[in-house]
Amino acid sequence: MGRITLDKVSKSFGEVEVIPPLDLTIENGEFTVFVGPSGCGKSTLLRLIAGLEDTSGGHIRIDGNDATHVPPAKRGLAMVFQSYALYPHMSVRKNIAFPMKMAGVPEDEQNRRIDAAANALNLSDYLDRRPGQLSGGQRQRVAIGRAIVREPAAFLFDEPLSNLDAALRVGMRLEISELHERLKTTMIYVTHDQVEAMTMADKIVVLRAGVIEQVGSPLELYHEPGNEFVAGFIGSPKMNLIKGAEAEKHGAATVGIRPEHTDVSTTEGTWNGVVGVAEHLGSDTFIHVHETGLTDMFTVRITGDIQVKHGDKIYLTPQLDKLHRFDAQGLRIE
Amino acid sequence: MARSVTTQRKIINTTAAWAVGLLIFFPILWTILTSFKTEATAIADPPVFLAFDWTLENYTTVMERSNYMRFLWNSVIIAGGSTLLGIIIAVPAAWSMAFVPSKRTKDILLWMLSTKMLPAVGVLYPIYLIFIKLGLLDSRTGLIIVLMLMNLPIIVWMLYTYFKEIPGEILEAARMDGASLKEEILYVLTPMAIPGIASTLLLNFILAWNEAFWTLNLTAAKAAPLTAFIASYSSPEGLFYAKLSAASTMAIAPILILGWFSQKQLVSGLTFGAVK
User: Fold this and answer.
1) Over the stretch A224-268, which tens digit does the pLDDT of each residue have?
2) Domain extent at residue A59
3) d(Cα B61, Cα B233) in Å, to the nearest integer?
4) How large is the average pLDDT for residues B14-35?
């Protein structure tokens, strides 16, 4: 079991309040992702849950029990760090065994769990090696193995893929998702990468300056961003946010339209501009348009290929049913 | 043009290094040579370098007159004991300074080091009186404590420097894995810091072995280590340079051999942290 409740949890470092009082419930078995720009407090929040930082106020409950002042070792949570944080002087086997040794698990049970974890993570051939002799991806798998064998109430991941190269990152992302499908254990995952957030999460928590901007499933956040910040943060390329007269036409202070919800033509359309850069990815084309009179740069995304080049005139038509409207405070207007 | 070390340059560098090395080592070499001379040759003018009748007479005399083994044993106990005690106290201290520093940690470290700037003789009187009161005069226990206190700032500093190099996330991982503070220090921090701890042990053993001020002033017969053994051949015996040299050679031989075999460890230990 692993239901985690934060009740008015806050954190200050000296005079600076990095997390104002905050409420959040993470249901048992849920894959929750904390996402936000760097410095938004997402890692601090995770460390508060882990017990590696003391809260300045509020209560943390794990399965209903108050864990606010319980030391990290006794919370029954396992953590995977960005730097892997393996014990360099121990073999892979001993690294994985360490939490069980601390918990006093009998040796044959330890070996059984190590073998099971090594099998699941493709580490069987490396059990006698030291972490220094492994690649980044293998090290991360050892770190995950060390977390699995404890059979924790929840897994905490602190940007675990940031140190891996792009190709490995995609592979590990899938492995972690599959692990979650198999174990059905609560997982809390911190990242600044909204693609990781969108692809892995059951529930995304978008944070800015220690404040929760929105909580929801990936598609809820995509289709119905609660405010301008979430609208701009979730989705790649970013949503185009338009202020001024054009927004007022739709009865809003700001309107947003995603790059993929804008039709393009070389002959006619609602708005027009001049092509700055066209990025051809083969499957998609991103066109960055200048001189629209709407925003500094308007981005559109077209499936497939379109032949436009720098300086070409181009017409844009938003799909009006996909238009997002925000009021002067930046909140969504339904 | 690529920077290359020419043969000529190599020869100059090597010669210079040997020259400096010899210059530093010369007093020790001279002591060792003198220990094999007769008393007359030892004070000959001009001095004789190698062409003299080598003799072991000084060593036999010294061995007959004093109980070398007792002094040696005292040295081992005092140097070893003070170093071990120092490490036991310094590991937790350095841990807290490196991993849970407060606003004053840097000040405390500097203050600790500043105590090394005080001339030892400045506190001789109070320490002597305390030793009388506590009945620690001429006891190995007393010397272990004093030498430990004397070297503690250096031990803490060295360990602090090593611990600073260990990533905090690894210790946090140990905490998440269910390790108590004791287990964290015992199973994770200490094994990772072994090279650093080893060179700290070694350096402090050497410092304690060579320490002469407190060992001479606080001991008489019972607890006297090898420094007192040397001293016993200096003043009361007058101009017996050859015997004094023999005693000195016997006193420094163990530590010289230890230093020789561990020089790699010592050098890498002392430059650790300075060079990444």
Assistant:
1) 999 999 999 998 889 999 988 888 889 899 999 999 999 998 888
2) 4-229
3) 11
4) 92
With CB atoms and an 8 Å threshold, state whether B176 touches A73.
Answer: yes
Report the domain count for chain A. 2
Question: Is the Cβ of B178 closer than 8 Å to some Cβ of chain A?
Answer: yes
Chain B residues whose CB is inside 8 A of the A157 CB are: none
Rounded to the nearest angstrom, the minimum Cα separation between A130 and chain B is 13
Q: Does residue B178 form part of some domain?
A: yes
Is residue A192 domain-shared with residue A319, that is, in the same domain? Answer: no
Last residue of a domain, one of A229, A251, A267: A229
Which residues are CB-contacts of B244 (< 8 A; sequence separation ≥ 6)? B230, B233, B234, B237
Q: Which helix (H) or strand (E) holds B152?
A: helix B140-164
Chain B residue with minimum CA distance to A79: B176
Q: Residues A216, A250: one domain?
A: no
Q: Give B88-139 as a DSSP string.
A: HHHHHHHHHHHHS--TTHHHHHHHHHHGGGS-GGGGHHHHHHHHHHHT-TT-
What whole-number distance in Å separates Cα of residue B195 and Cα of residue A94? Answer: 21
Q: State the alpha helices, DSSP H only, in chain A.
A: 42-50, 92-103, 107-120, 136-148, 166-183, 194-200, 218-223, 228-233, 245-248
Q: What are the Cα distances from residue A180, in Å, to A25, A28, A149, B120, B166? A: 19, 12, 14, 65, 32
Enclosing domain of residue B204: 66-232
Q: Are residues A210 and A159 part of one domain?
A: yes
pTM of this structure: 0.78
Instruction: Identify the pLDDT of residue A31.
Output: 96
Q: Would residue B181 count as lying in a domain?
A: yes
CB contact under 8 A, B174 and A98: yes
| Domain of residue B198, CATH code | 1.10.3720.10
Residue in chain A lying closest to B167 (CA): A85
Strands A203-208 and A31-35: parallel
Q: Best mutation site among B99, B176, B197 for testing chain A: the one with the most A CBs within 10 Å?
A: B176
What is the rounded average pLDDT of the residues A62-71? 92
pLDDT of residue A70: 93
The shortest C-alpha distance from B185 to chain A (Å) reads 13
B92-125 tens-digit pLDDT: 899 899 988 888 988 998 998 888 888 888 888 8
Q: How far lies B226's CA from each of B31, B79, B212, in Å?
A: 16, 11, 9
Q: Is residue B162 part of a domain?
A: yes
**Domain match, A188 and A307 both:** no
Kindly state whether residues A305 and A217 are assigned to the same domain.
no
Cα–Cα dist B80/B62, whole Å: 25
Tally of domains in chain B: 1
CB atoms within 10 A of CB A99: 25
Least confident of A96-105, A189-198, B67-76: B67-76
Q: Please tell me the distance in Å from A104's CA to the nearest CA on chain B.
A: 10
| Residue A9 maps to a domain | yes
Q: Are A216 and A246 within one domain?
A: no
Q: Establish if A236 belongs to a structural domain.
A: no
Spatial separation of the C-alpha atoms in residues A289 and A60, rounded to whole Å: 48
Can you give the CATH number for the domain in which A28 is found?
Answer: 3.40.50.300
